[in-house]
Amino acid sequence: KNEVEQSPQNLTAQEGEFITINCSYSVGISALHWLQQHPGGGIVSLFMLSSGKKKHGRLIATINIQEKHSSLHITASHPRDSAVYICAVGGGADGLTFGKGTHLIIQP
Amino acid sequence: GAGVSQSPSNKVTEKGKDVELRCDPISGHTALYWYRQSLGQGLEFLIYFQGNSAPDKSGLPSDRFSAERTGGSVSTLTIQRTQQEDSAVYLCASSLAAVLGEQFFGPGTRLTVL
Q1: 3-state secondary structure string across chain B
Q2: Across residues B23-40, what is the average pLDDT?
Q3: In the predicted model, what is the mean pLDDT of chain B?
Q4: Chain B contacts of A91, Cβ < 8 Å?
Q5: Which of A9, A70, B12, B30 has the highest count of CB atoms within 10 angstroms of its CB?
Q6: Dihedral of the CA atoms B21, A83, B99, A5 (nearest 10)?
Q7: How far is A77 from chain B (nearest CA, A)?
């Protein structure tokens, strides 16, 4: 069974700062997912990665398959980015295995 | 287009009662997943359906849990003889492809067992 570790668990930053959230996993995978959940809200898929790097607006996700590591970056952070960010691996018959999430607060 | 929908959004039940949760996946998505999110356990995978194929039930927490998917579309998750530890948010997700498919999550059903 894959073990998914995220760091940091909690992060508070000022508006405009560059944010990095890290994820590592123990067993080789086909795909890694970054998900976002606002307080009291549903889960939204941000990225699905199997290699390299993806960018959507101010969000960038990278993955290093050899090192079993992925990072999610937020540039020019904004209070509306405050949410829980969850890393997950797998899919298919075994479903996703989730990290515990990173609670991000961006202060104005 | 319409996303994944789930019903009911909230369900309060008494211990020992049976409950049925419904998921309508995005049209055309062959892969469907059920997950559970609870304070103590975080997010955990329950069961996966690929089209009409019989699912692997080994991820279900106990034999009180069962799930079916009719016609490769709508799915129901049934919990018999509910217990307080079943209280959680039950999430459904669907994707176009299985392993390399982005998963789209429904809003969830919040189940409270009194």
Answers
A1: CCCCEEECCEEEECCCCCEEEEEECCCCCCEEEEEEEECCCEEEEEEEEECCCCCCHHHCCCCCEEEEECCCCCEEEEECCCCHHHCEEEEEEEECCCCCCCCEECCCEEEEEC
A2: 93
A3: 93
A4: 31, 95, 98-101, 103
A5: A70
A6: -110
A7: 25
Residue with tokens 């996303």: B3
How far is the alpha carbon of A29 from chain B, nearest alpha carbon, in Å?
10
**Touching check for B46 and chain A: CB below 8 Å?**
yes
Tokens found for residue B98: 């299985």
Judged against a pLDDT cut of 90, whether residue B5 lies above it is answered with yes
Say if the Cβ atoms of B102 and A48 lie within 8 Å. yes
What's the confidence (pLDDT) of residue B1?
Answer: 58
Closest CA to A46 of A101, A3, A108, A106: A101
Say if residues B82 and B17 touch (Cβ distance below 8 Å). yes
Structure-token pair, residue B55: 């699912």
In sign, the C-alpha dihedral spanning A4, A53, B33, A86 is: positive
**Chain mean position to CA A28:** 17
- Low-confidence spans in chain A with pLDDT less than 50: none
Query: SS3 for B24-51, per residue?
Result: ECCCCCCEEEEEEEECCCEEEEEEEEEC
Give the distance from residue A48's alpha carbon to the nearest chain B alpha carbon, in angstroms: 6
